[in-house]
Amino acid sequence: MRRIRYEDGGAPDGGLFLEEVPVPEPAAGELLVEVAAVGVTLPVVRKVRAGGPPVPLGGEVAGEVVRVGEGVTGFAPGDHVTGLCFGHGYADFALLDSTMAVRVPAGATARDAVALVRSGVVALGALEAAQLAEGESVLVTAAASGVGHLAVQLAGLRGAGRVVGAVGDPAKAGFVRSLGADGVVAYGEEGWGGPYDAVVDAVGGELLGPAVRALAPGGRLVAYSSGGGTIEAYDLLAGGRSVIGFQIARVARRQPERYAGWVRELWRLFTAGALRPAVHAEFALADAGLAHAVIEGRANRGKVVLVP
Q1: Which residues, at least 6 apart from 1, have a Cβ–Cβ distance to it below 8 Å?
Q2: Low-confidence ranges of the chain (pLDDT < 50)
């Protein structure tokens, strides 16, 4: 089978190489999935760009189960599933821990699955962490991203009174408004059109300060970015603002029933036509470097997908 190997992010071609390797065998508790789509994520792109030792390129995969490992119950060959692969996901075949796999319902494609499930549970979980009450206002940063474009829609579906998307490129404003946003602001704008009862932030870094200052008194910032950053304590003390860190992997491990409930809710909204996952572009497996470049350049409107 074909697989993308990562060696050195400092290499001229980004350190991504297409190679031929044997199809892996599922260990106990694993599913072997013939991959139909891979969702490219910002954390993986950042890991590659940072360089360092070789690591498997994991990510969201969706496809058909072709073999199950010892002890697997609830799944069988022929099932269509999606889930987060922690090993080699940029490949024709990938291994999924059966506890991380969810079924793809009839009528949904693998492309729909990788655009909806993982990004959707992050968006839904971050909004729950914000404790957003009906009628409150919310700002979503990286509003055109794989997670952000779903968070904009979900905020409205959950009763937010005002939903505003923040983007780095004003050319994305039309896309964000098409998702139902009441307004769009650019990162360089003073005050970001606030104040807001909640800010859901996917960017971090130098945007954390402005995000806190855009909060109304008593407002909450939910930070789920891997981009780091620092916050001045006074910005929190002024007005009694707060910051909440959110990590979806922690919920998946410690509260699997809650995670599963979010997945069911996402598929319900999708099936009803209320939630529309967007795919910016599809790339062949051999063009993984080009897919990474789209994410790294913040050019995407929705999800970027590899199609083996």
Answers
A1: 20, 21, 22, 23, 91, 92, 93
A2: none
What confidence score (pLDDT) does residue 175 get?
97
pTM (whole model) above 0.85: yes
How many angstroms separate the Cα of 183 from the Cα of each of 65, 175, 179, 186? 42, 11, 11, 10
The token duo for 282 is: 């599809």
Instruction: Report pLDDT digits (tens) over 90-107.
Output: 999 999 999 889 999 998
**Identity at 63, one-letter amino acid code:** G
Would you tell me the crossing angle of helices 42-49 and 288-296 to the nearest 10 degrees? 100
Q: CA dist 217 to 85, 88, 112, 198, 236, Å?
A: 40, 45, 39, 10, 9
For the residues of 231-290, what is the DSSP string, one character each? --HHHHHTTT-EEEE--HHHHHHH-HHHHHHHHHHHHHHHHTT-----EEEEEEGGGHHH
**Two tokens at 305?**
């997908």
C-alpha 4/C-alpha 19 separation (Å) is 6
**H helix count then E strand count, the chain:** 9, 15
For residues 239 and 73, the answer to whether their CB atoms sit within 8 Å is no
* 65's tokens: 């189960």
CA distance 240 to 228: 22
Q: What domains sit in the chain, N to C, each tagged with a CATH number?
A: 2-104+278-307 (3.90.180.10), 119-249 (3.40.50.720)
Task: Please report, as a single letter, which amino acid is at residue 19.
Answer: E
